[in-house]
């Protein structure tokens, strides 16, 4: 056993030393212990051996010997056979144990140094609810433990928290993940892991992530999504009402007739179909785009006119489109009426403008020079705002035979032109009709920014 045994007299003589002691420190040869161990002329100031002579009680302490090694010292009062007082000292070499312990402590400190810098709140809990370690993030949130149990200093509770699930890992030996709203209202995402201390005692490595702001953001997103869904339902309802109104108008066209031609009925249904398609295309553009409430209207018009071109089965007719479209994002309340207007006016050109089967339809979407936003105009001026307040113009023209003079915008019996007038009023716009070199409709309107 790596231990020495000696007997020491009150005058520092060594009447007995075992083989281990003499092998490591030599024989005393009548010298006092401090003389031959440390070549001193006085007793060592740090020596605690002779305390037992004052107290009459055993004493334990640690000593670094002249060989530089560490010893765990046990001193006991002892009586010699002649009744004289001696000290029995046992020294156990613990050098390797201390070195191993120091290595473990250094490794543990490196672990703590890593945990200290992590942004998550991390602590080590022992079975009696004390906090053996808490990193900086944890301390910033809850303060210093000051020797108190976790429930005392974290939440000011005298007993362990009823909602706490951390100690399940001591029962199961398995990691545990849970979420909790603590008394201050913070929402914490908790990860608990079984952990073993250097001495083999069980602990809990606890990692808390404050997700309060993330939860608020998630709740806000849910509310936004709910509002978006409500808005979609509202738009669908409005669109269905528009379709219903269109069908009512179409019905009025035939209500006064006793006999209707099949071709006229088919044409009426095709017109209604094209109106619905013009609305459906808007939803398709919204679905494909990266915005939920606006669409790029120029791109939409290109698709709408292409669909109309196919719908009227132009065949061998030489009718072409010329599009000059600036980029502009429109909301649903403006895009749907304008889409139906374009559908009506382009359809009229296809049906009536080119009896010879040859011509050109042109659509221009332009920003005006006076492009003030409606939101920039004083409220008192909006109701009386004339054409000068509009910031966009939609022009639809053809070089066909032109609309007869007796047909006017306000007095026309044409369902399509009646509908165009209604929709222009709906978007608070203005419409002009020019009959020079064919037909041109000029619609002025406001795009909100």
TrEMBL record:
Q: Which Pfam families match?
A: HATPase_c, HisKA_2, PAS_8
Q: Give start and end of each PAC domain.
A: 174-223
Q: Which UniProt keywords apply?
A: Kinase, Transferase
Query: Is the Transmembrane keyword given for this protein?
Result: no
Q: Where's the Histidine kinase domain?
A: 231-449
Question: Which InterPro entries does this chain map to?
Answer: HATPase_C_sf, HATPase_dom, His_kinase_dom, PAS, PAS-assoc_C, PAS-like_dom_sf, Sig_transdc_His_kin_sub2_dim/P
**Can you name this protein?**
Sensory transduction histidine kinase
**GO molecular function terms attached to this record:** kinase activity
* Organism expressing this protein natively: Methanosarcina mazei WWM610
Task: Indicate yes or no for the key word Transferase.
Answer: yes
Domain of life of the native organism: Archaea
């Amino acid at each position: 056993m790596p231990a020495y045994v000696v007997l020491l007299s009150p005058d520092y003589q060594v009447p007995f030393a075992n083989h281990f002691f003499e092998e490591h420190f030599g024989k005393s040869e009548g010298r006092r212990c401090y003389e031959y161990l440390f070549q001193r002329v006085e007793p060592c100031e740090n020596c605690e051996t002779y305390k037992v002579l004052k107290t009459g009680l055993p004493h334990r302490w640690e000593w670094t010997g002249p060989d530089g090694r560490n010893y765990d010292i046990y001193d006991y009062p002892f009586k010699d056979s002649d009744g004289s007082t001696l000290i029995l000292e046992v020294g156990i070499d613990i050098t390797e144990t201390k070195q191993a312990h120091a290595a473990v402590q250094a490794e543990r400190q490196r672990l703590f140094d890593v945990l200290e810098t992590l942004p998550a709140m991390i602590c080590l809990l022992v079975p009696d609810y004390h906090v053996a370690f808490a990193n900086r993030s944890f301390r910033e949130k809850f303060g210093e433990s000051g020797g108190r149990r976790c429930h005392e200093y974290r939440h000011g509770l005298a007993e362990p928290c009823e909602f706490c699930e951390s100690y399940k890992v001591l029962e199961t030996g398995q990691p545990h993940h849970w979420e909790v709203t603590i008394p201050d209202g913070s929402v914490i995402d908790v990860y608990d892991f079984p952990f073993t201390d250097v001495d083999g005692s069980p602990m809990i490595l606890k990692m808390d992530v404050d997700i309060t702001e993330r939860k608020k953001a998630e709740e806000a997103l849910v509310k936004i999504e709910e509002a978006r869904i409500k808005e979609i339902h509202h738009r669908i309802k409005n669109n269905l009402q528009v379709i219903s109104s269109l069908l009512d108008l179409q019905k009025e066209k035939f209500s006064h007739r006793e006999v209707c031609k099949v071709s006229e009925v088919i044409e009426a249904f095709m017109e209604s179909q094209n109106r619905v398609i013009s609305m459906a295309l808007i939803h398709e553009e919204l679905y494909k785009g990266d915005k939920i409430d606006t669409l790029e209207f120029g791109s939409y018009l290109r698709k709408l006119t292409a669909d109309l071109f196919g719908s009227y089965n132009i065949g061998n007719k030489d009718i072409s489109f010329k599009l000059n479209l600036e980029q502009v994002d429109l909301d649903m309340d403006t895009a749907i009426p304008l889409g139906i207007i374009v559908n009506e006016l382009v359809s009229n050109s296809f049906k009536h403008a080119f009896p010879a089967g040859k011509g050109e339809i042109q659509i221009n979407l332009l920003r005006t020079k006076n492009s003030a936003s409606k939101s920039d105009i004083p409220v008192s001026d909006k109701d009386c705002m004339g054409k000068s307040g509009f910031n966009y113009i939609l022009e639809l023209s053809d070089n066909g035979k032109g609309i007869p003079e007796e047909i006017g915008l306000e007095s026309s019996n044409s369902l399509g032109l009646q509908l165009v007038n209604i929709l222009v009023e709906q978007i608070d716009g203005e419409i002009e009709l020019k009959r020079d070199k064919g037909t041109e409709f000029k619609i002025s309107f406001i795009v909100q920014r």
